[in-house]
Amino acid sequence: MEPTPAELDEFTEEIRLLQKLKPDKCAVGFWITEKEMIPVASGEKCKAELMQLLAQNYERYKGADIKIRGLGRYEEETLSAEPVKEALLTHRLILQIVEKEPPPAALEALQEEVNRYIAPQVTGSNTCTFGILYAIETGIYLRANSVKCFQRLNDYFVNNYGSISATVINLQTTKEYQKVIDYMKQQIAAMMEGKKSVKGGGGEPFRIEVEKNKNEEEYVGLVGDGENTLTFSVYFPPDKKNFLKIRPPSAAALSAGNIALDKSLLEEGILKVTYRPSKLCSAGNSDQVFRVELWEDPMIGKEKLLDTEFVRFKVFRMPIFILHGLWGPAESMAQMEQYLEGKYQGKNNENDLIFNFDYFAYNLEDIGSNGERLKKYVDDISDRYVSDYLKIKPGKVELVAFSVGGMASRSYIQNLGGYEKVNKLVTLGTPHLGAPAMQIIYDGCPSLNPDADLVACGGLLTFAQKARKVPGLSEDVFQTGPVIIQLLPSSSFLEQLNRKSDLHEDEVEYVLIAGTKQMIPRFEGEAEALNWLASKAGLFDDKFKPYFYRYLIALSDPEGDGLVPIESARGEGLFETAKRLETPASHADIFVKPEVFDLVHGQLNTCEIDISHSPLLLEEDGTLVIKT
User: Which residues contact 497 (CB under 8 A, 6 or more apart)?
Assistant: First the structure.
């Protein structure tokens, strides 16, 4: 809430009182509202130093969509019409700029103007109509002519909040990004406290320091992917009579994990210990303790324990990213997400490392572009959320993908370096070899195929518009776009993606699950199928029935799940080392059946542990002895 002048004066007086406790120090404070952050200091000189510090650290927090009152760099920036128009060039844009907060009637008028243009339906067009009202005093208001188009516009501002000075009213961010924004706001307040100086050895107090993230904060743990490491720096008085005993974490698993010692600074009183745990798959996390004992070995008498230091940390399971399919939004995978959270998050959701990737606003676009969106999402979550916010050292991830989500995952793995980041990909009903049912849609739609039958396509559009009103079907069902062409068994996209040399099976473990239940019972012949169509009065146009008969045959094919043939979902003839599984589910329910959840969990719960690391040579008491 915006403070009144009296409230701000009272807050400033409290800051001045704080300085009296330490006259040689500046006292500063921040009043944070939903729209901006108001810096306050105990005097004009302190205020000047504070504003200078904020300006110098502009790059650290500008991405948090924070406006700081009085900071010139923010006040000079405005929402420029040309860059926004250029970024949203493929869409229709209505841009208004006013001085003061708009009344509700102005926003309603903007929405009505946006709604004059029909939202894209099943034509294959990606054009949306956006309305953007920039009120300089209050912020940016967003409007669009459909839910999906609004998500596209919202995503533009989420992805570009670093270059936009104004607050975006009701900007919808994912829970992970919202936490990042909150974290960066906290960092601004913490900046004034100063950083702790890094201490060396040379006789300083005995202690352990844990590896830090880029914000100089110690990690609380690491992702256990079999390759990730965490380094502990041990500082101790380097007396020649002193020596160290290290009790390694997870001693029972040392045949699979490893400890590396850097003794190059031992004489100066510094020992670096790098711990590499084995893969953790069966639990959300594992509590660990790294303990170091400082001993004295006198000339006469027994060894004597001088001091003990230890650090508690956790090894976390690899994060899991879930991807939805072609015509279903991220919410369609909510049951899968909740199931895996129940298996891995533990009490109080302490392991918040299950992510449902939402690319629904772009699901009809090129699969490669959605692979790029997945890469950005994985990188952002790993760097900004896992490392910076949760203070967990990030490592590899695992993907669970339904239908075309598996193709976007493969595009990321094979074409964008994802094979270095992904440990395992589990696909459900993914058309690795293409989906013949897409050929039927392609043949009937002139937006995709210039030679299509216009009469048949008209029937398809009529059917699609009616089908979207059926409960449980999304607004996108039967919409078309470039992805339809890419899923044709003969497409150039699949030809490139399915080069065996590009699969990276040595780096990524593939689990391919195929559904074996057709969507509708098999028809004996065309007459029976047409009779079934005739029973659905009002849903199908008569002239469309012969065309849709082909689609019915695909839905009832016993060699598939209704849309994807079993052979294609299993990647037959393509993958050499992949694990192939089948389940009695159709393409309509393979992503919501509890038995499929159990099947997926069983595959995620199994790790191929690398046991090639040499076990440590420990003393009888289970310690490593390090002498100078």
Answer: 407, 410, 411, 414, 415
Q: Work out the number of other CB atoms within 10 angstroms of the CB of residue 18.
A: 15
What residues contact residue 150 under an 8 Å CB cut-off, 6+ apart? 142, 143, 144
245 domain-assigned: yes
Q: Give me the domain span that covers residue 271.
A: 207-316+612-627
Query: Residues 162, 213, 25, CA angle at the centre, nearest 5°?
Result: 80
- For 511-542, the pLDDT digits (tens) are 999 999 988 777 777 777 777 766 665 555 55
Residue 19 and residue 155 in one domain: no
Q: Is residue 446 part of a domain?
A: yes
- Is 172 a domain residue? no
What domain count does the chain have? Answer: 4
In a domain, 185, yes or no: no
Q: 297 pLDDT exceeds 70?
A: yes
Handedness of CA 530, 563, 338, 382 (dihedral sign): negative
Longest dimension (CA), the chain: 104
- Token readout for 63 is 């991405």
* CB contact set of 569 (below 8 Å; sequence gap of 6+): 427, 429, 430, 431, 432, 512, 513, 514, 515, 560, 561
Residue ending a domain, among 107, 130, 164, is 164
Rounded (10°) angle between helices 454-467 and 436-444: 110
pTM: 0.72
Q: How far is CA 266 from the centre of its chain?
A: 41
Cα–Cα dist 378/396, whole Å: 10
CA 40 remoteness from chain centre: 36
**Same-domain status, 532 and 390:** yes
